[in-house]
Each structure stands twice: as structure tokens, then as C-alpha cells.
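Marked as duplicate of an earlier ticket. Keeping the data here for the record.
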Amino acid sequence: MKYIVSGGGTGGHIYPAISIAKEILSREEDAQVLYIGTETGPEGGIVRQSGLDFETVRVSYIPRKISIKLIRSLFKLLGGFSDAKKIINDFKPNMLIGTGGYVSFPVLYMAQRKKIPTIILETNAYPGLANKFLAKKASAVCVTFDETIGRLTITGDVYKTGNPLRPDFFQDSNKEKYEQEGKLVLSFGGSGGQKSLNNALIEIIKGDLLDNVFLIHITGKRHYDSFVSALGNYNKEKYRVIDYTEDVPSIMLAADLVVASAGMMTLTEISAASVASILVPKAYTAENHQEYNARAYERGGASKLIIESDLNGKLLSDTINSLFLNDDLLKKMGKNAYELANIKANEEIYEIIRLVRRG
């Protein structure tokens, strides 16, 4: 069997696609999987590093307002349709799986026109434009939240699978390296960092606003120099500042609390680690989907929500300190987080692939 997976732009689209691809390859000895992304997006390096075959189509973000950028993006999209058609004709896939992002649109659209079965994975509470359109003719749609279903027009089967966690997320954990007597907070604004969260952490660290807490803050590589410059001298025994680390799973497993933005990949990892969280959704994300994600976790009793426009060091430190006064609440939030995710999503999505394949 031949499969194409497509998704890009952010880790929340890329890592689930890789997870699904790896699940297929682990189950079927003769399977061939091709990942389609863009040459300029982050998926190129990540997918190639994973060992999957990778090809590209021409497509870029489509602005919502009429402008020169919109016209250029539409012309590029036409090229993307042509690229996708050629790849599909050459590769001859039996099925396509899309995990969102604008790159998946021309790829799955051309497959649907050719009557090739397609499966859509929409992990966010509020679906993106590409999946909104593609869900109408998809053979199956997999979601994380119940409320997502009402925001899509679905003619095929719908399944609540949750978000697939990359298989190596908790392998080779160095959790014990980060365990300590006091409370541990991990804070980060997604893989690229978050300026508003960084600013709040500068206030917290400079003012030493946390009570009996050790904090590890990940700034994001592009923010690190300006963060450290603004910070000046600080208590390095209590606050650790780094630009990036591959050891997030180990730190998260050791943490008593996570402060983060609300991308779906981050939330899935928080759930898998059974850890309480404070979520600061990025306000500029498409369809404001991170706020919808965060509110779903807040309703589920797993997280405290702080809107980005309200964020400052005092509010964040007060929220952290108040949570650490109630161990029972922290444990309950961690348990609720675990129940919001489906740790067996990879396996369930593969079973859906088999069902669709059988017709």
C-alpha cells in the first residue's frame, strides 16, 4: 500500500503526520509513505531528519484581506495544485492523510478530485480553513474535541481519536536529572518561543516573584539574546534560562507545573505527562485556535487560562504561587489533563486507516 501524508507550518501539524507515518510503517512491512510539505516551511528539515521520503509543493499562507500578497499567494497555490497532481500521478497513492496547515490543501484537494480516499486529522478545538474545506469530502475525520465536530461539515465518518503523540516522546527519559526537593516549573512558548511570555518571565525573574520554586524557562532561539540582555544579573540557582532543548519530555515529566502557549502538540504532551498547566494562548494564531484549545482544557479542569493581552509578571507569578498552595488541586489538574488526551491515538488512527482502506 502507498500512502501520502501532508501537514506543515507548525509542529502541531508536522509531528502528528510523522507519528501517523511511523505507525503505518511499523504495521505494514510493504508500505510506502511519502510526506508532502513545502520547501520553505519547518517541515522540510524535521521530516527529512525523521527518515521519511519528502517532496514539496508550491504554496504559502493565504492572507484574509485583499492585497498584493493575496494575489501572489493565489498564483502560488495554482502552482501547488499542479505540483500535487504530478506527485499523485507519479506516486499513485492508495490513501492520503492530512493533518492541517495550508500545504495540505492542494495535496488532499487533488486526491479528492481523483476519488482517492482521504482522512483528515483536526486536533484543534477550532478547525483551520484547509481542514474546514477538505472535511466536506473526506472519507473520515479524526478530532480531539467534541466541539470541533459542530464546526465542520462532515459527510464521511467522524472519530474522536485525540492527537497522536510522537512515539519517541518519553523514550530515554532523563526525568531524574531534573527532580528535586522543591517545586519545579517548566515554562515555554511553543517551539519558537513567545514574546509576551518571555516579557512576563523577565519581570518574574528580575523581581524574584516565585515562592520556593525552581523554574526552567525556554525562551526560543530567536528571543534568547534579547531576553538575557534585558534580564541582567539574576539568581541562577533558582531560575534557569535556556534557548532550546530536546529534553522537554524529561523536564515535563519532572515538573509540578507547566506554563505554556496552547498549541495542540504542547497540550498533548502536557496530557501525556499528567501535569497541571497555566496556558497563555498566542493571540495571533489562525482562527485564534489556541484560545479555543486552552478554553477546552480549562473547562476540563486541567489548566488555568491567562489571555495574552492580560499577561504580566505579577499575574503569572500570583497564579503559580496560588496553585502551589494546593497540592490536591495540582494532582487533580494533572489527572484531568491525562483524561483529555488519548495516549493510544496512534493505534486508533491506524485502525481507522484500515477501515477506510477496506471501504
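See parent ticket for discussion. The mean pLDDT is 92.
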